Amino acid sequence: MKNARYRVYLLQLLLPLLVLSCPAAFAAEGKESLVKGAFIYNFVKFVEWPGDKAVGKLSSIDICTLGDDDLASAAKVFKAASTDKLKLNLLSESGAKSAAGHCHIVFISSSESGKLSQILADLKSHPVLLVSDSDNFVEQGGMIGFVVNDNKIKIAVNTKAVSASGLRVDAQLLEIALKVIDK
After folding, report:
1. Most buried residue, 33, 73, 136, 169, by most Cβ within 10 Å?
2. pLDDT at position 22, please?
3. Phi, psi (5° rounding) for residue 169?
4. E strands along the chain, which residues?
């Protein structure tokens, strides 16, 4: 039992450093979903939710996906990062409105590009972090977009969209972003 706790503790300590320092290594090996999952795990630490949705007040949070389940292989990242104090659940949702009430983070698959404006409208007034790998996601009003740059997975952040939903992004997350827009 102690060995399992030690591995979880070690993973929680090293995973953020590993992902933030060398995302290219993962992308080059075709493990994009694991890198995206690790980034999303770190978003939990570097984003502040208001009131009852504050992560520190909860024993579990839901990380939800809309569209093709691109993050299915990242489920092991969330399971390994879960602790006795905070469990990370990866759930697939059928629509944005059903995700609004319980999801802290919604990953919108690029397969949902045609519905993106409606999804963003449905979730606009909810304290839900919207993340996607769709092209120009943050320019269209999304919050955090995954961008491949020089074969490395990077992020772009739309601070205006984040603030409008009542969330706050830590400056450390903005420092690693390839692009930060306020639009």
Report:
1. 169
2. 43
3. -100, 130
4. 47-48, 60-66, 87-93, 103-108, 129-132, 144-149, 152-158, 168-169, 179-181
Residue 120 has a CB neighbour count (10 Å cut-off) of 19
**What 3-state class would DSSP assign to 158?**
strand
Containing domain of residue 133, as a range? Answer: 2-181
Contact 32, 55 (CB under 8 A): no
Q: Which of 138, 154, 131 is CA-nearest to residue 27?
A: 154
Q: How many domains are contained in the chain?
A: 1
3-state secondary structure of 18: helix
**Per-residue pLDDT, 3:** 43
Task: Give the C-alpha separation, 12 to 164, whole Å.
Answer: 30
Read off the pLDDT band of 61 (50, 70, 90): very high
Cα dihedral: 12, 14, 17, 23 (round 10): -100
pLDDT at 15 over 60: no
Q: What is the CATH number of the domain that holds 92?
A: 3.40.50.2300
Relative to beta strand 144-149, strand 152-158 is antiparallel
What is the rounded radius of gyration, in angstroms, for the C-alpha atoms of the chain? 15
How does DSSP assign 72-115, residue by residue? GGGHHHHHHH--SS-EEEEEEES-HHHHHTTEEEEEE-GGGGGG
